[in-house]
Here is the input.
Amino acid sequence: VDTRDIRNGATMLAAGYTDQPYCAIVTHQHHTVETWVCVITASMGGEGSAGEEVYSVTSSDLGRSWSKPVVVEPGTSLPGGHPNAYANIVLAPALNSGRGGRLFTVYNLNLKNLSLGGRADELGSFYMRYSDDLGASWSTTKYLVPYPNTWVDRQNNFKGAHHIMWTVDQIKVLPSGVAMFAFTKIG
Here is the structure.
């Protein structure tokens, strides 16, 4: 079987729209089994449609099969949910073991349910959650990932009162342990 042929691939998540599957590989302690934990933006509509939200899926057989999706942040398809999208993921090193530790995901979250021309997934701020169980669940607390307003923000439709942005980058961890990712600001 030619694994480069899309027809031979396994479905990670079926929806009307899926985007940006970013993955972290966790090697379990005391053996060589790996678990791939991926975060994906999905909705039943198109990009930016109502109900768009971030999910996680896992595979323990090198991507031949995938778990049922787990909602990372409830979107507008669920009561009390907010538009969210475009996540990335990183595995923090475990202390004293040299093996995988806590997983973190950073994503766009529009807590104020703002809208701009029908789209709400590029508005808001970056937030972070963590998982200690290979993406089977995510922390109940979410953490703001702040960044300063710049000229671009002050030129946007909200004159800097709200951000318009998204991330399309993998998180990089420097030797010092600092984690970084690039993102786009929209003016």
Remarks:
- The two ends are 47 Å apart (CA to CA).
- The first strand starts at residue 17 and ends at 27.
